[in-house]
Amino acid sequence: MEDFRVLAERHHKAVFRLAYRMTGNQQDAEDVVQECFLRAYKQMSKFDGRSAFGTWLHRIAANCAIDLIRSRKRRDTQQGAELNPEITMSHEPSPERLTGSVEIRRMLEPALAQLSDMERAAFVMRHYEGLCIEDIGATLGVQPNAAKHTVFRAVQKLRRALQPAFGVAQ
Amino acid sequence: MSHLNEEQLVDLYYERPASSYPHLTECRKCREAFTDLEQTLNAFADLPVPEPPPFTWREPFTARLASRWRMFALVPALAAALFAAFYMGRSTTTPPPKLAATPLAESGRERILVVALGNHLQRSEMVLLEVANGDRSTSPAVQERARNLIGETRLYRQTAVYSGDRNYSELLEELDRLLTAIANGQSQSSQPGTEQLEQLLFKIRVTGSNIEKGTEKL
User: Which ipTM did the prediction report?
Assistant: First the structure.
């Protein structure tokens, strides 16, 4: 137990970053961290050591985040509170304002918020975690081709969202 | 010359397949498209992430981890609760109908308890009598018998307290105190006085008599 606590303390920041990027919410990210370490602790006997502990842990964290996102979505749907992604981007700044990187940074989170849960999860795993398409597919429970297409759709949406900043003609 | 499509550019960004480089170096249009994509995706490296709070084993986590152990821990607690419920059950469960042949108590369970208490009081009375009739320097054998009676006395007293029977609880509290003093073999000055012993013996006899007649309930 004490050994596991040491491992958890060592990896918790990275797991939190992954969880935050996937959920876009600090509270949810903290929940994911807790759930992730709980699952990891219970599944410790299944860790075969073929991958690094951190990689194994991040895969669990990604799964936890996806589960949380799905349950959150179900809850929001039941409450009729599902956000229209278009609304979240309704305050796009004009190109003239987008001169500095600060302005671009402000657009990143709303851009990610436009993605579907699967797209966001796939993009985060690909972009930030550097997971290969096969691993992303396995984590999301889809075929590699579907995972690849999900990442691609996410990138397309993000490019469109940041178009005012970079003036890219898509 | 066929240009790279957007999907291939995304692949190129993440996997950088060597086969794409020759075309990219030759084709200005694809190179520009790739640079645009790169610029957009690189911007996401700056996505602000708040500093996580220091890692703590939050309650649900520790609670859930401990849940399996808690189940085992609950076993003795449940056993104790069942044991208490057995004695206290008359206030929460419907007692069985009275039996003509059992005038001592309302139910069989109570009858067993009252009879057991009567036996306990008889054994306690014998110990107290030995102390009262002796030279008040208690022998190790009497001390041992008194010690053996203490736990049972406390259990009955607790039951009486829970069931709100003040007479019994006071009697058993007094008995507990005297038995403890005897069991500890305290100095003569701290041993129960003759008058105190006689008063308690009187109470025990009255209670025992009532139990025999079936007029006492717990």
Answer: 0.73
